[in-house]
Each structure stands twice: as C-alpha cells, then as structure tokens.
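Section 5.1 Outputs to date
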Amino acid sequence: MSESKILKDEKEEHLLFRSRAIVAACVVVMLLSAISVRLFYLQVSQHEHLTELAQENYQKRIPIPPVRGQIYDRNGVVLADNKIEYVLEVVRDKATELDENIDLLQKLIPITAKDIHKFKQQLRVNSRFQPVVLRSALTPEEISIFSVNRYRFPGFAVNIRTERVYPLGSVASHVIGYVGRIDTRDLERLGKNEYKGSTHVGKTGIEKFYESRLHGKAGFKQVEMDAHSEPQRTLEEQSPISGEDLFLSIDLELQTKAETLLQGKRGAIVALDPRNGEILAMVSVPMFDSNLFVNGISYRDYNALRDDPGRPLFNRALQGAYPPGSTIKPITGLAGLEAGVVNEKRTVYGRGFFQIPGTKHRYRCWKKSGHGHISLNRAIYQSCDVYFYDLAYRMGIDRFSVAMREFGFGQKTGIDLPHERSGLIPTPEWKKKRYKTSWYPGDTVNIGIGQGYWTASPLQLAHATGAVAMRGQRVMPHVLKSVRTSRDLPEKVVVPKRLPSIKATDAHWDAVIQGMVNVVHGPMGTARRSGAGAKYRFAGKTGTAQVFGIAQNKTYNASKLAKKLHDHSLFVAFAPLENPRIALSIIVENGGGGSAVAAPMARELLDTYLLPKPVQIEAEKPEEGEVKTTQVNKKNNDRT
C-alpha cells in the first residue's frame, strides 16, 4: 500500500481563512448591533416606563376615594347621608395564603359566606394593590380582637370608610334610588381611573342620574415602601374632592303625606309646581327600602321584592302606562275648540250612548239614562262620554294626535330621572305597524275619552295639568332644585328649562278651566264633595279607566270581579285657581271611581301643601303648674 500524500496550497488556505474571518466579523458586528439596539430601546425608548417600574419597587400610588355628596329635600332634610364605619380590608398584593387566613380569621370574628362572596367579586375588578373590603361595620370588640392578632394576617388591616345610608328608609325611594357595589359593567361605563378606590356607584334614581355630581374626584398618596411593602413616608399627596350636595325640589311633608294616603294600595301620585316644573312629590306604591341594596341585597330580600305582585321595584310614576280616562276631557275639549269642531254653546244630545253614523255599535256613557242636551262646560263637570265620543269622531285621529302631543303625551317629559317611559298617543301608522291592520273610526271614538290604545304616565298627566293651569306655558319637570359644591359657598339654583307653549285663545282656556272648577265647586260636579269647604278655589277632573273590555249590552258587578279587574281611579287638579302653585295627578290601581277614591286624596294633599300649619310656641313664662301657649301660623317660604 502506497503512502498518502498531503499537498499544501497556500493560496487556497489563505482564501479559506479570509472567508471565515469575514463570517466571524459579521457575526460579531450583528451581535454588537443587537446589543446596541437593545441598549437604545432600554435606555431611550423605555426610559420613562422602566424608571416608573423601578420606582414602584419602593413607591406605591394609593388612591383616596372622595366622600359622596349628600341628598336633601327642598327644606334641608337629609334624604341620603354618609356614615363612618370601620371595615376590615385586604390588599391582595400583600396577603399570603388568602383562603387559609380567611378561614382562620372566621374563628376570631364573624365573617359570613355572603361577606366572602362579595369580597371575591370585588377582587376580580380591583387591582392587586387596591384594598378590598372583607367585612364591614366592625364593632369595637371585633376591632380589638383583630388588632391583637394582626401579626398573623399579613395584608389585612382595619380602616375607616364612609357608607351610604338612607335615614328615612323607603321614603321617596323611587326618586332617590340607591347605590350599589361597582361591578365590571359599571367600570366599563365609568372608567377605572375615575373610580380608583371607590367601591359604590349610583344604580337607580337621582343616585344614578347625577352620579357625576355626587361621586366627586379621587385623590392619591405617593408612599415610599420598605422591603416588606410597609409604608415609610408620604412623598406626595393630592386630596380628593368631595361630591356635590344635591337639594331636591321634593317637599318631604307632602311626599310622606302622599305615601301615607296610598299605603296598602297600588298606585302613583305626582305633584309639581307648574310655574317652574319642580317636582314636589313623586310616589309609587308599593315602595322599597333603599338601604337593602347598599352592600348587596340578600337573595331572600331580593326574591321577596321580585316576586311581590305589587312590583315594589317598578316606578309607576315614571314607567306606568295607564289609560288616562276622563282626566283628559278638558284637554280634549280645548283641542276641539281650537280646531273649530265645537264651541262653548254647541250642545250634543247625550242619550246614554253614541253611534257612528251608519253603524249599529253603541259606545256607552257611564250614565245609562244619558245627560240630555249638554254643552262643553257641563260635559266636563259631569264627565259626559257621549259629548267627547262625538268630538273625537268629528275631529279625526290625525288632528287629535297632534293636539295631544303638544301637551306632552306620547313622548318623554325629559325629567332628570332614568328609565322614563314615553307612553303612547296612537296613530293609524302606529296601528298598521304594530297590529298589521287599519285604523277604524271606533278607535278614534275610544281615544276621545282616554281609553283604547292611549296610555300615559302619572308624570305626563301632572305635566299636562300644569300646562292647563298656566294656560299653555310649559316647563320641563325636574327633581334637582339646587347644588352646593362646598358648605362655605351658596347653593346654585337650577334654571328651569322652558318648553314650547301651547297656543290657544283666552276664551277657550277660560271655558275648559271653568269646567274643571265646576267639577269640584259646582253643585253637580262629579267631585263636588272633595271641593266642599275648601279655603281656596281649585280645578280638577275625575277619571275612571277600564282595565278590560265589556261586550255590547253587557254589564258587570264589580263586587264579583277579582280586584285586579276593577277600574283604575284617577284624578288631576291644580290650585289655587288664581295663582296656581301646585298641579297633581293621582292613580289608584283597581281603586274604582275617581270621585270616590282619588279625588278625596287630592283634597288632602292640596290642604297639606297650601294651608298654613298651626304651631304651638311658648308665648310667655307660665305660672307654676300652668301651661300657656299661643297658636301661630307657620308657612314655608318656598311655597309662597
């Protein structure tokens, strides 16, 4: 075997070395470039971010929630307040073995399953550095027990917080509303930054509508921490700005009187000042206690409210949709006068029923024997159905609907409360879309007495009655009267928003208002008993709305019907006649006739609001064993 021979080519070796050196140099350059880019990214592009992260290793920004604004009635009575309480909080970032520590803590102080459930819900929406309440309303004894054992529970601490409270419970609950714990949907709507540190937000009523005013603005503390995440000193602090205090137009005396009158019934009352649109009372019965919702209502309490046939969570004053019945006859009469369909002297023969020409169907009057020849004035104060059947038929649904919308029917009033319903003024177009059928003359006839498809809320009825009282001048209803940003500053009064006026001749206004006056002060008025002995003159109109249809030539005995099938009782009024300061509407569900049920309630409310209150004051120092007092008249300045 011959020996292998290795040949040496210096040129080839030189080229191989050179190529390898170039590759190595490129790799080095690439690595240095990558390092340079990374250094540039860290030192320049991410400088601020990384500096902030580094600072967070020894600094924490702790949010300070603002104090929620209070809510008062027009006279300064507190309706929604804040109470100070001690709470047990947990910071997740500091806590270790959280579930085990909670189990251990339960052996020392009471912590319910409900407390733990709400706590874990809040953990999901709060940051890991933000304190979350585990248990509220700690007693002094419970605070002492925890303080002694605090070293065993890292991340747990007792702090002072304010909690929303409603001193009067269910009074005006549908107006005030309530606050509840913030959930994920709330944060999506409100924004996390604005609500850092806050635990509650308005859910309904004024609490929700004016959330931005009531909440205030959160503050913060920049705190230096040690290696054990314990605060050492405050580096920077910005105080929170408390929420604004709201003064409502609600008159608490009138509100509670209205609630008392409806106690044990189902219905609604709305009273407002027709001059400026201020809501004086807004009642929906049954009611609920707003305090139940502040820290999460129990399943038992919520189920009781939800399953209650009276629907206490439903605000009838805003959301109720009722046939207005005969309460709208004065407005219907005004529309007929303005359209030239009727005049003050024209009479209709009321024979107990009305028939559309060429048909046999009879639209009955409440008075079976009929009213005979009847004018507009008498048709209003004796509530003759036949007169208004005839008026609506002659006027036609198109002109009728337009006229009613001028008074605010079929549309929201714009009140500063959530969830208002618009009610319904029907039109042929609406019926075609809703029921896929044509509009018939009989539909128009029923609308003429506030029945058929027409629905309205108690607020709309009060608003329309106020427009009659002011002879066409309209103001948007509102609950907020004034705002106070600081106790050192005067209140800022809300400026009423004027709405388009209703144009009508003075003679026509006189005619329909006189008819309403005769309802309560005339010898034949349907509510003459309610007007008897009044120390002021007022105008009103009764109404009775059917809740089910009656076949031709049939009658029914109310005593044999289920209560839910009885007629609704309605009444509208304004007073005093010469200078109206209050307009109201009342509906009592399944209450029966308006003159027997709703009208007496209205008289009591008007007396409560308008008449001076006798107050016992000490006139002079009495002799021993003698008590001497003097009667004086006291009247709220807001009512003059």
